[in-house]
């Protein structure tokens, strides 16, 4: 019994000395923690993303429109997500393909000698570009000769340029010779100037719509002029007509030599300053913001100024800024664009070219972006006034210079979903899927609102996640989704061995194969989820305030032609049409006559 008693006494002695030891160690750990807390930077220091606030105060003369810029720049680490910043991994497996099929008849065999189509475009440079492209296709549908389109000279943009001032008209006509007969001017009729019959067509008019609405008038009048021609052709057409769209947009529409040469100079100067550069198309003009109906924290001053401009569009409803932002309808601010790019891995040493008009708030609004990217350029900073003088009084020619620099950039970024953003996104897909970053505004809105409560890594990770499907990669958007000019899927072909080659990359190593397959499946799910979240209803491109037409997607009671008239229409002998005919028109026969 003595032995167990001694053991118990020994154990009690050890426990008695253990508590002071634990207390001493705990005290040391607590002291070290307090010491490190004093030395560590504040959570609001540069290692965390800052919310560069704009006061929302309605008092005072400034209306609270001051932008506060931190003295030190936001530090965002790059390369965390192991993505090539300047190219798309699988782009080499895809290429633009717009050649006509063997079934697509030559223009000289199907063009009727007494049918002339004239088009008057609408809007700015890129809106007119879509109009010109669709005009060629409309002429083909009608088997008519196209007169070189007239450009909009009277609306909001007020540019007096002719087609030949912006585009190489001779190249345009020659390149499309086999597809559509194009002439520079309407010929004289019986020795006198011919006044064409004027008419309108509804937006997104289908080939059937053109056959039923325009062709009968064209056959009777022989020369028809369609005005306000923007988005007047359906988004979905048969394959050969879609490929014709691509031949026009990506090959036939070449800028005039003076514009091309000046644009090339600007590109060369950007290349001299850096191996790679980003081009940002920044829409943040007062008119743009007013049209969007969004609010950016400028207090009563902003509401009054933008509200006055917004009233120019009589058909716009009262805006709901919070709802618009939640739905992704608000253009990102220059600061938000900069934060997005830094989160995606682009460092402060990256050179950025900014294509923009008048920025609301001026230099104060641009200051946060310039703080994030000090190597900040525009055509005004890399070209002299003398060099820009031939273009400076023409908005479309200046826009064409920006178009060239943006098109040639290594990465193209936009803060909006307007016409230039769409046209360039489609063009860059067609010519090799060069990185094209379009903000997923609906998702990023929540990230920007909460960025003060996130670490650098958290913010960057969320931006990466939400931007999947918005980076210009192959197959990130389903075929047929969105405007054809933005997603010309019919004109993008895939290497026959592409899938095999891409899968082969995943089979290089056993263990890595499983991880990569899982990552690929996760990415596919992310992209599919994001694609459903696209800002497909976001149409921020401004319309002309004077053009308050009511023809949105409305067939306007289009007249159908009976099959009994198809033969007459084909040989061009009919000079009138019967609006009471049935709807059994043989479109194939009409389109191939």
From TrEMBL:
Listed A to Z, the keywords are: Carbohydrate metabolism, Fucose metabolism, Glycosyltransferase, Membrane, Transferase, Transmembrane, Transmembrane helix
Q: Where is the composition biased (Acidic residues)?
A: 536-555, 581-593
List all membrane-crossing ranges. 21-40
Q: Where is the composition biased (Basic and acidic residues)?
A: 502-535
Name the Pfam families for this protein.
Answer: O-FucT (PF10250)
- Which intervals of the chain are annotated as region Disordered? 50-69, 502-593
User: Record keywords: Transmembrane helix included?
Assistant: yes
Annotated InterPro entries: FucosylTrfase_pln (IPR024709), GDP-Fuc_O-FucTrfase (IPR019378)
The coiled-coil segments of this chain are none
Segments of skewed composition (Polar residues): 570-580
Entry similarity comment: Belongs to the glycosyltransferase GT106 family.
The name of this protein is: O-fucosyltransferase family protein
Q: What is the lineage of its organism?
A: Eukaryota, Viridiplantae, Streptophyta, Embryophyta, Tracheophyta
């Amino acid at each position: 019994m003595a032995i167990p008693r001694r053991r118990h006494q020994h154990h009690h002695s050890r426990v008695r000395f253990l508590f002071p030891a634990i207390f001493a160690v705990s005290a040391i750990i607590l002291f070290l923690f307090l010491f490190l807390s004093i030395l560590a930077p504040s959570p609001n220091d540069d290692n965390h993303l800052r919310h560069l606030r704009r006061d929302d105060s309605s008092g005072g003369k400034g209306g609270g429109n001051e932008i506060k810029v931190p003295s030190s720049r936001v530090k965002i680490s790059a390369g965390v997500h192991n993505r090539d910043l300047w190219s798309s991994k699988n782009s080499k497996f895809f290429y633009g393909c717009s050649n006509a099929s063997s079934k697509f008849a030559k223009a000289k065999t199907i063009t009727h000698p007494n049918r002339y189509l004239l088009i008057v475009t609408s809007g700015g440079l890129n809106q007119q570009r879509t109009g010109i492209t669709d005009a060629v296709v409309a002429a083909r549908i009608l088997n008519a000769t196209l007169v070189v389109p007239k450009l909009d000279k009277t609306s909001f943009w007020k540019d007096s340029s002719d087609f030949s001032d912006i585009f190489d008209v001779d190249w345009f006509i020659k390149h499309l010779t086999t597809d559509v007969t194009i002439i520079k001017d309407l010929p004289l009729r019986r020795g006198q100037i011919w006044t064409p019959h004027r008419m309108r067509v509804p937006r997104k008019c289908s080939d059937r719509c053109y056959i039923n609405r325009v062709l009968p008038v064209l056959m009777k009048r022989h020369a028809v002029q369609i005005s306000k021609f923007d988005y007047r052709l359906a988004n979905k057409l048969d394959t050969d007509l879609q490929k014709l769209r691509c031949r026009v947009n990506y090959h036939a529409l070449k800028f005039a030599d003076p514009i091309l040469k000046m644009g090339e100079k600007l590109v060369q100067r950007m290349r001299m300053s850096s191996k790679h550069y980003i081009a940002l198309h920044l829409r943040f003009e007062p008119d743009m913001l007013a049209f969007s109906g969004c609010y950016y924290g400028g207090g009563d001053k902003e509401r009054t100024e933008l509200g006055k401009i917004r009233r120019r569009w009589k058909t716009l409803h009262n805006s709901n800024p919070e709802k618009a932002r939640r739905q992704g309808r608000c253009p990102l601010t220059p600061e938000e664009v900069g934060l997005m790019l830094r989160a995606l891995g682009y460092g402060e040493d990256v050179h950025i070219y900014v294509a923009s008009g008048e920025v609301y708030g001026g230099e104060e609004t641009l200051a946060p972006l310039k703080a994030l990217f000090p190597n900040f350029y525009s055509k005004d900073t890399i070209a002299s006034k003398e060099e820009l003088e031939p273009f400076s009084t023409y908005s479309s020619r200046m826009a064409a210079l920006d178009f060239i620099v943006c098109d040639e950039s290594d990465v193209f970024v936009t803060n909006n979903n307007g016409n230039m953003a769409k046209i360039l996104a489609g063009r860059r897909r067609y010519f090799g899927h060069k990185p094209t970053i379009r903000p997923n505004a609906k998702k990023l809105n929540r990230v920007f609102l909460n960025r003060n409560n996130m670490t650098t890594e958290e913010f960057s990770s969320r931006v990466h996640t939400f931007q999947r499907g918005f980076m210009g990669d192959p197959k990130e958007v389903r075929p047929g989704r969105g405007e054809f000019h933005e997603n010309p899927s019919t004109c993008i072909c895939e290497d026959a061995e592409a899938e095999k080659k891409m899968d082969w990359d995943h089979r290089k190593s056993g263990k890595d194969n499983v991880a990569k397959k899982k990552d690929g499946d996760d990415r596919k799910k992310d992209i599919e989820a994001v694609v459903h979240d696209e800002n497909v209803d976001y149409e921020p491109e401004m319309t002309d305030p004077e053009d308050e037409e009511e023809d949105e997607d409305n067939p306007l009671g289009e007249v159908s032609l009976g099959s009994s008239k198809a033969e007459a229409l084909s040989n061009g002998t009919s000079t009138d049409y019967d609006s009471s005919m049935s709807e059994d028109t043989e479109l194939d026969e009409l389109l191939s006559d």
